[in-house]
Amino acid sequence: MDRQGSQQETGRAQRIVMKFGGTSMAGTERIRRVANIVRAQAAAGGGSAVAVVVSAMAGETDRLVNFCREANALYDPAEYDVVVASGEQVTSGLLALTLQSLGLKARSWLGWQLPVRTAAHHSKARIEAIDAPSLVEALEAGEIAVIPGFQGVSDDGRVTTMGRGGSDTSAVAIAAAVGADRCDIYTDVDGVYTTDPRIVAKARKLKAVTYEEMLELASVGAKVLQTRSVGLAMKAGVRVQVLSSFVGEDAVAADKLPGTMIVSDAEMDELVEKGLMERQLVTGIAHDKNEAKIILTRVPDKPGAVAHIFEPLADAGINVDMIIQNVGRDKGETDVTFTVPQADLARAQALLEDKRELIGFNRIITDSQIAKISVVGVGMKSHAGVAGTMFRALSDRGINVQAISTSEIKISVMIDEDETELAVRVLHTAYGLDAED
Ligand code: ASP
Ligand code: MG
Fold this sequence. Notes:
437 residues; alpha/beta; 20 strands; 23% strand; binds magnesium ion
């Protein structure tokens, strides 16, 4: 699946962006292991040009966020960025030092040095452009570039960060900017699975998954990649591979490792034709326990009522996911049920209470003991019956579906949080995803 031929075709060394997450960077011992993997990749294919994007050490960003909260509960996001960006500054310098200790040429490039230009939306900035010429020059000269993920710089020269998990997006953006042959995301799992292997022992690692499927899986709780990074990879056509950084002492180049490759629909068709992938109706099952449910009772059943509910939430940047307007009661009233991230529940509740008059609801009921279970697969586009199988399998086990939402390639249901593991297992079997013994 890799582009072994690219070197001959283009006459330049293959360019690889490698990204290592916090678990892989937690401490100098592990950084040494990462350095070994980087060395192997740099030597691969007669010499590859390598840029490495790193996360802060595991737990470090949480620690820094807490410092900000302690210092000032209503912290200024611009100063928050100065603090939290430091975690990646430390690991990028340490990795450059470790690579140098192995006799390799390496240097760090901080967000403001490259620069990685972002809008000034502190704590959730989006990458606008990466000026790559000097980076490319360094790579071509055989120097390994080590780049802290998650950080950038705004037009007015201040440090920005890109939202939690943002290093994945940094890596994909760097890969796009340098025209990388591949972006390898090293993490603490060795690929993308049909579902969480900690819940289903018979979960299978996928050789490949399409961008579209990965985008849906990431957005509904599969934590392997930041959702935005997948969207960017899809748009920019970056080849992304997910693989494990825990490979023991003899590190090998990723060209030979069986991770999960994220591919286009056309590539997936090719893999199926060659018998390398099986065509499945459902590719993966994800769960998310981080949503909460809000029910507003006896909302007037008339035009404009739901706008009054959702406009203030949108203005406050609160993401509403599933929405159901229950069947109208008598007297022109109805109940409206929807979900928001658990972290925003208190804020959402306060906002709605504030607008009680305007919306005209009777009671507000909240519940964070819910989970969202999603089945994802491009196969759904052309096949009926996927939803039927889901509802039958859940009801056979007495699992009650409280809300449903769908997209072209995804069906999500809201259930009681206590039934999460059971539901995931039952569905994994129902769609024939269990590995054979
Ligand atoms: N260190 C940041 C975080 O924990 C960014 C990342 O690791 O992707 O969110
Ligand atoms: Mg991550």
